[in-house]
Design brief:
The structure holds two protein chains of two kinds.
Chain A lengths: L1 H16 L14 E3 L6 E11 L2 E10 L5 E10 L13 E5 L4 E7 L7 E7 L2
Chain B lengths: L1 H18 L28 H17 L8 E4 L3 E2 L7 H15 L3 E2 L6 H13 L19 E13 L3 E14 L5 E14 L1
Parallel strand pairs in B: 1-3, 1-4, 2-4
Antiparallel strand pairs in B: 4-5, 5-6
Classes of the chains: A mainly beta, B alpha/beta.
């Protein structure tokens, strides 16, 4: 009996250590390239549209901590083949106030951009 | 004794290979190439990240606005520097022109800086008598600009014992030359704060 309980506990602990499944293709999470752990910044749903021939993206962000948080981000614009179609964007810094929810808009530099990635780093 | 000598020799050889430079580089280790897209916060003054952010946001906003239909010809004027700093505003203009060109939404007429070379080349081709008539670019065929792109950058600097705050505001407008109407305007604000 004791052994069974021990075995069950060991299994439960190991399951916790298992790596999470990769995000589903086409989901918002699959568009985020986090460089390291994203501390206290939650990336929410994204709205993608094509306005006047250019792809536009709007990403919702949420600061889950009660302190101001700075993050560095940039968008990478990809073509149909998944490779970049333009020079990399410049890195930008954004500060979110404690518990703030905000939106991050972006416009593609060239009309042939059909996909994007959001590269984020929290210092 | 010979074992000690051997081990000493091996240690020296290991050290020597460690000091050897196997990268294709030449020069001192103090100098290295950096990332041109990195966020630069060396000082509070106008920097490379500010230039890049302005050019990026202004060109994308203009390209995506739909005002530039059919790749019109645009004449770009120098950005007026209304700040108290030295800023090479021509570089802001050049970046904006380059990115607009790459987006495929506009074409540019010779601006005031290129006009002299353009006129000199035309005069040389047409009046010097040096060139074959069939290859000469004739005068009187330059395409005039449909739009004018003008901008200015200003700053507000505030200092206290704890903070130095610099607020930049860059505004850009697209004006139809014939009607004089501004068809598109946008602005970019940047705040840089130094906490002492």
């Amino acid at each position: 009996m004791g052994r069974k309980i021990f075995a069950l506990m060991a299994l439960a602990l190991l399951a916790g250590c298992a790596t999470p499944p990769p995000p589903a293709p086409g989901s918002a999470a699959s568009k985020v390239v986090a460089m390291g752990d994203l501390k206290n910044i939650e990336i929410g749903p994204m709205r993608v549209a094509r306005e006047n021939g250019f792809m536009t993206v709007n990403v919702s962000l949420n600061n889950t901590s009660s302190y101001n948080k700075t993050m560095y981000y940039r968008f990478a614009w990809l073509g149909n083949d998944g490779f970049p179609v333009a020079e990399p964007d410049t890195w930008k810094s954004l500060t979110l106030y404690g518990s703030q929810s905000s939106f991050l808009p972006a416009i593609a530099p060239v009309p042939k951009a059909t996909d994007f990635r959001l590269e984020v780093k929290t210092p | 004794m010979s074992l000690i000598r051997l081990s000493l020799l091996a240690a020296v050889a290991l050290l020597a290979t460690g000091c050897a430079n196997n990268s294709p580089t030449l020069g001192s280790k103090n100098i290295s190439y950096g990332d041109t897209k990195a966020v630069e916060t060396v000082t509070n003054e106008f920097g490379s990240t500010d230039l890049q952010m302005i050019a990026e946001s202004m060109t994308r906003s203009l390209a995506q606005s739909g005002t530039l239909q059919g790749r019109p010809v645009v004449q770009v004027y120098d950005v007026k520097n209304k700040t108290s700093e030295y800023i090479d505003t021509r570089e802001i203009t050049t970046s904006i022109k380059t990115q607009l060109m790459k987006s495929g939404t506009a074409r540019f007429a010779s601006d005031n800086t290129d006009m002299q070379s353009q006129v000199d080349q035309l005069k040389l081709q047409n009046q010097s008598g040096l060139y074959k008539k069939s290859t000469v670019s004739k005068t009187g065929n330059m395409v005039a600009a449909k739009y004018r792109l003008e901008g200015s950058i200003s700053s507000i600097v505030k200092r206290s014992s704890d903070y130095k705050d610099v607020f930049y505001k860059f505004s850009l407008q697209l004006i139809d030359v014939e009607s004089g109407i501004a068809e598109w305007m946008d602005e970019k604000e940047i705040r840089k704060t130094t906490e002492r």
